[in-house]
Amino acid sequence: MNPTTPDNPTAAAEFRFPGRPTMTLDRPRLMGILNLTPDSFSDGGKYDDLDVAVMRGLVMAREGADLIDVGGESSRPGAERVSADQQIQRTAGVIEALRHTLDGEGYEHVAISIDTTQAKVARAALDAGAGMLNDISAGREDPGMLTLAAERSAPICLMHMHGQPKSMQAAPSYEDVVQEIEAFLAERVEAAVAAGVERSQVVIDPGIGFGKTVEHNLAILRAMPRYVATGQPVLLGTSRKSFLAKLQGDPEGKIEPDPAGGTAATTALGVAAGVPLFRVHDVALNHQAAIAAWAVHHG
Length: 299
Prior knowledge:
This protein is of the alpha/beta class. The chain contains 10 helices and 10 strands. The strands form 2 sheets. It has an 8-stranded parallel β-sheet with strand order 8-7-6-5-4-3-10-9. The protein has a two-stranded antiparallel sheet with strand order 1-2. The radius of gyration is 17 Å and the shape is globular.
């Protein structure tokens, strides 16, 4: 992709992970999801054994993941909070072992991110081998997340969320969902920059499914070129979200059977819109979708 093309102003951007190889955004990048929680909405309890978790991370790297996003607290609707110490207990050892395994298997270029809103957890993860922070509260819950990212020169993803996970799906309402999210993310980017984070190292995520109805999610997806046009790297996370099941006719939005086809469709649409980062459960499928969409859109 030509870095100067208007449909992807972040094509020339790159992430500099502490002590790790640099990752450019000149093609779509996949962030594989590794939930170390008993209550995540689609894979809770599957990877609570260290060896199983590490193998899952390695498999995702083999399938084409450029990052592995490790989380120790569920953010599904209605989820209860988990203490920082318990998150560390769940994640730090896995991150250390996964980093060692990835390096040993020739995947030094695959970065690890920590999915948390708490600086104490993030610091332990960085010490264990993570290189990126993924904060669904966008640094509002713990401003120390922003200063930590600056201190450690780590990229950070800031997401929009309406309310809190426990109650975010209780009749969310917006006057203009696209504009309000854009304004929120712009403010949080400036907060990160003010804390010392390099602007190019701040990723924005409009937060599909986090306090949004089906109609809100569709409006956000249609507006992805608008978020890309801000110049900040954009992360799209639709993977296995209930709205995809609802689009298939399930009013309850159950994830079984997995709406993986819908996820792959949004990945392809995101690539066409210039989105560089995709957070997914099904890495192989979405890797195929991204490659095909990239070839069609960019030649």
